[in-house]
Amino acid sequence: MKKKSIDQLFLSFEQEKTVSDNKNIKEKKSFLPLDLKRAALGWLVSQAPNAVGVRVPTRISKFCADIAAFWVGSRRGQLIPRKTIIIETRNNREECWPDCSKHEGLLKQLKEKKELKRSLEEKIRKAEPQLKDTDNLFNEYESWRYRETKNKDYHHCIRAIDEIEHAVYNGSFFEQLRRAEVADFLYLAVPEGTVHSDELADGWGLIYIRPDLSTSLVKQADFWDCPVEKKIHLAHNIAITCRKSLLFSMGIRETADGRPAFTPVPHRRRGSVK
Q1: pLDDT tens per residue across span 230-266
Q2: Whole-number Cα distances in Å, 22 to 26, 185, 197
Q3: Is 80 exceeded by the pLDDT of residue 70?
Q4: What's the CA angle centered on 37, arms 250 and 51, to 5 degrees?
Q5: Are 158 and 110 in contact (CB under 8 A)?
Q6: At what angle do helices 152-169 and 100-127 cross, to 10 degrees?
Q7: CA atoms within 13 A on the CB side of 273
Q8: DSSP for the chain, written as a single string
Q9: In sequence order, which residues have a C-beta less than 8 Å from that of residue 4 and are 6 or more positions away?
Q10: How far apart are CA 236 and CA 219, in angstroms?
Q11: Annotated domain spans of the chain
C-alpha cells in the first residue's frame, strides 16, 4: 500500500481544530460503548458516506473495525468504493495501550519528537519551497516531499519517530488494521482529552467525544492510497454486517434451520448496536 503523502497531507473533512498540549492528560468520564459509537457515527454521518457498518471484519475476520464506511465513485461505468474510512472507539488510555504504564515514557518521547518534526517542516517549507508537490490527484490535498529535504536534523527526527512508533505499535490492533490496506482513512475516537494527537500510530486521525456526544476533529488522518480491490472487500463486508441490523429493525429473526421468524418490530431500542 502506498501512502498518498508520506509526510504531510491535509484532508478537508472539516477545518482542523487546534488542541492545546496537555502534558498531564487526565482520564475522562467513561462512556457506554454504545454511546461512543453513536457519537463517532454522528461525526461520520456529517461526511455523507454512501454506506456505513459497525463491527466490520477487515481482511482477517478476527480484526473487526468498530465502524467502517465508504463513498461510491464510478470507473468505466461501474460503481466502486472511491474512499473508505475506519473509526475505532476507545474509552480510556488502557484500551488504547493494554500495557499503558509500560509505554508512557515512549509516548512522551513520541510527542516531543513529533513537535520537533512540525517545527522542522515549517523551516523546510520556507527554505525549500520546491519540495511542494504540485502534481496532486485531488484538489483537497496539499502535500510536501519532506523526505527529499537536505535538512539532516529532519532525517534524524524521522528515524527516531519510526523507531519509537515501532516499539509502541508493532503488532498492535491499530497496526493490524493499517496493514489490512482496506481503509484510506483511519481514525481513533476517544473521550475529550484522553489521548494526545502526537501519541497516535502513524497516519491515524483523532476525534474527541464530549459528554453531550458532540465531537471535534483534533487531527485529520493521512490519506492511504489503498488498492481498489481491497476497498471493494471492505465494502462487501459492510454490506454483510448490515444484514443482521436490517432484519432486526424489520422484526425478522432467523431460526437455527434458516427459516424466518417474525417478531414485534423494535421501537427505539438503544441497545441494538453492539
Answers
A1: 999 999 999 999 988 889 889 998 898 989 999 988 8
A2: 9, 25, 11
A3: yes
A4: 55
A5: no
A6: 160
A7: 20
A8: -EES-SS----TTSPPPP----SSPPPPPP--HHHHHHHHHHHHHTT--SEEEEEEE-SSTTSEEEEEEEEEEEETTEEEEEEEEEEEE-SSHHHH-TTHHHHHHHHHHHHHHHHHHHHHHHHHHHH-GGGEE---SSTT--EE-GGG---HHHHHHHHHHHHHHHHHHTTSHHHHHHHTT--SEEEEEEETTSS-GGGSPTT-EEEEE-TTS-EEEEEPPPPEE--HHHHHHHHHHHHHHHHHHHHHHTTEEE-TTS-EEE-PPP-S-GGG--
A9: 141, 143, 222, 223, 224, 225
A10: 28
A11: 2-272
Nearest to 174 by CA among 115, 95, 257: 95
Single-letter code of the amino acid located at 242? C
CB proximity list for 205: less than 8 A, separation 6 or greater: 185, 186, 187, 188, 217, 218, 219, 220, 221, 222
* Joined grid coordinates for residue 188: 481513533
- Write down the pTM of the prediction: 0.75
- For residue range 162-217, list pLDDT tens digits in order: 999 888 888 788 888 888 999 999 999 999 999 999 999 888 999 999 999 999 99
**What is the structure's pLDDT at 168?**
86
Whether the CB-CB separation of 213 and 234 falls below 8 Å is answered with: no
Where residue 46 falls among pLDDT bands split at 50, 70, 90? very high
Q: Residue 201's pLDDT is what?
A: 84
CA distance linking residue 51 with residue 234, whole number of Å: 11
